[in-house]
Structures are given as C-alpha cells and as structure tokens.
Amino acid sequence: MSVISNIRRPVEKEMAEFEKYFSNTMRSNIPLLRIVLNYILRRKGKQMRPMLVLLSSKLYGNIEEPSFVAATLIELLHTTSLVHDDVVDDAHERRGAISINALWNSKIAVLVGDYMLARGLLVSVDKGRYDMLEIVSEAVKAMTEGELLQLQKSRKLNITEEDYFSIIRMKTAALIAACTECGAKAVTSDPDILQNMKLFGETIGMAFQIRDDVLDYEANGLTGKPAGNDIKEKKITLPLIHVLDKCDRSTRNEILKIIRTNKKSSAEVRRVVDLVYQYGGIDYAVEMMHLYRDKALAILDTCPPGDANDSLRQFVMYTTSRKK
User: Fold this and answer.
1) Are 123 and 72 in contact (CB under 8 A)?
2) What is the pTM (predicted TM-score) of this model?
3) What are the boundaries of each domain within the chain?
4) How does pLDDT run across 190-249, given as a tens digit for each residue?
C-alpha cells in the first residue's frame, strides 16, 4: 500500500463520495467545455488537498455535505490555478500529460480555468457557505500576490530570505491553510480551533514548498526533471539564497552571472548546484523545513487523538520525506 493510500484510509469512503460530488459540479452543456472538463477529470492527481479537507473535518466531527462543499471548492480552485499556471509558464506538460493550453490553446485554457473558478463560487453560494467562500477568496488573493511578488523579484534577482518565505506563504501555504481551515469550518465554528487548523495547514505548506525546492537540487530520476531545473528557469529558492548570503563576493558574482544567462550549459548549472551543496544551502533548507514540520506536529499534539490525527501526522512526515 502506498503512503498516500495509507494516509487517506480513514476517509476512503468519503473520498469516493467526494469524487462523485466533484464530478457533478464539472458538468456542462457546452460540447467543447464538456470535452476539456472530462480530460481534466481523467488526469486527476493524488487529490491531497480534498483529502486534507476531509481529514480536518473528521478530526473534529462527522463528514457530511459541508465537508464535500469545502473539498469541492478547494479542488476547483486548485485545478484552476494549475490550468492558469500552465498558461503563464507556457508549460506543455502537467502530471506527465499534455497541458490544456498545449492540447487546445491558451485562450481555451484561461476560459476553462475561469469556468471552474466560477463553479467553485457558485457551489459555495448555492449551499450558503459564504464563510468558506471568504476563506478561499483570501487564499486566491494571497496566491496571486505571491506569484506577482515572485515575478518582480525574479527579474531583479534580489530576492531575500524574508522575500522567499513571504512568497511561499502566499503561493503555496495559503491554499493548504484554506484546506485545513475549511475542513474544520465544515464541522465547527470554534474560532480557536479554526485558527489552529489554519496555522497547521500553513506550516505544512511551508514545509511542502521547501521540500519541493530542495528536490530540485537532487537528481533522483523520480521528479522527471534534472537537478537544477530552477536554476535554468532563473528561480532563486532557499538553498541558493542561503549560499548567496554566505559566500564571498567573487562566488556570488559568478553565481548571479550564470543565473542571468538565458541559455546555460549543463556545466554551468552543475557548477551552481555544486556550490549550493558546498556552502551548506541544502542542509540549511532542510533544517528550516524540519522546523516547520515540528511545528505542525506540535499543533497536532493539541488536537483530538484518533485515526484522522494519525493520518495527518503521517501526511506531515510524508510532506518532508517524499522523493517527488
């Protein structure tokens, strides 16, 4: 049994119900839209975000329709962000399959993303869950701001460690925090619980993104990308930020010169990767990731025990040890 299968075991039956609920929201009478939506449904990923919603609900109550509304709203938002990201990045692949913009075109991809976002808004309005709509709208706002801040900093290559944490808090952690907060909101209105679950999701999100950024420096054959892909794309993440802060001026200038180069040779990329290891960039990033991991586990210590708590604990550990 895979790690994810084991984690989702306490909500296995509810995940199957969620999938039916989600499919019903993706229906349309427009033939082209129906074809694209079916394509999206067929290439679903691990569905970690709806799983987090349902586990967060189960932690504090019984999973009923409000939890499915929350999971559907989150999954529609997440899928929208992936479709739009592929357009922004001009990416031709997503999860090993051809992206929507590559298979059809960017205009269709943007419109399909808009449709899914609208469906998410309507699901919450139809069920009178304006509270969940507010949580998710805040996440969308944060994700957009984070993306724009990263673009601004990437152009000038002047990203600081503080900038980095602000960006990943907005781009990645905000949506995962919305998962755990909405999941709890489906079963309780206790403000202390909701704040605690929001913080729990945020800490997972921070650890998750740092792990992603460390993985980019590890050539393990599982990610589908060679080591240093972020370097090729001029993305400066925590391991490299630490090195730029610690190395001498000559080495810093050498690194920045390579990063600025549009077409980097494999030797140049390898040189930056080697410097990141040499100056302890990976060790530092892993140390910071473990701080967030431990913070998430400490929050779970204050939550009710049971299968859901055990699964969320496994999820935290999976987040920081995964190989892809």
Assistant:
1) yes
2) 0.89
3) 3-321
4) 999 999 999 999 999 999 999 999 999 986 444 445 577 888 888 899 999 999 999 999
> In this structure, which CATH number among 3.30.565.10, 1.10.150.320, 2.120.10.80, 1.10.600.10 belongs to the domain 3-321?
1.10.600.10
What is the rounded distance in angstroms from the CA atom of residue 317 to the CA atom of residue 311? 10
For residues 251 and 259, give the distance between their C-alpha atoms in angstroms, rounded to a whole number: 12
Amino acid at position 51, single letter: M
